[in-house]
Amino acid sequence: MSPPRQEAAPDELREPQNDSVASGLIRFNENVDMILERGTFASGDIEVCGLMWGVVAKRNRKDSSCHLGIYLHHLTYETRPWSVDVSAQFKLVGFGDRNREWELKKTFHNGCTRAGIDEFIPW
């Protein structure tokens, strides 16, 4: 007799993992004060849809805007066409009610001249 199956918690069902081939989702959750202190924040590599992505966030000290960048590593121009749709969800946590959530979407393909999403977010 096989052991009883464990059901996943509701939150686990709703949130795909970053390394899930099916997810196409990069999640970034951090405190905006840490961005201010360090200048550059959350640079790193994440695998999404089998491709390596870089994520970086910077805060502009002059106007307090945030620059969020997502880019594809090792972009190659193959003869075989390929494309991938990517959604990135950003949640920056600030003071009180100043939390911001953004979703960015873009299709990348092997003809891309610039493989990235850049957004300036007024804070």
TrEMBL record:
Q: Where is this region: Disordered?
A: 1-20
Protein name stated in the entry: MATH domain-containing protein
User: Where is the chain membrane-spanning?
Assistant: none
Provenance organism = Pristionchus mayeri
Q: What is the lineage of its organism?
A: Eukaryota, Metazoa, Ecdysozoa, Nematoda, Chromadorea
What positions does the domain MATH occupy?
31-123
* Gene3D superfamilies from the UniProt entry: Apoptosis, Tumor Necrosis Factor Receptor Associated Protein 2, Chain A
InterPro entries attached here?
MATH/TRAF_dom (IPR002083), TRAF-like (IPR008974)
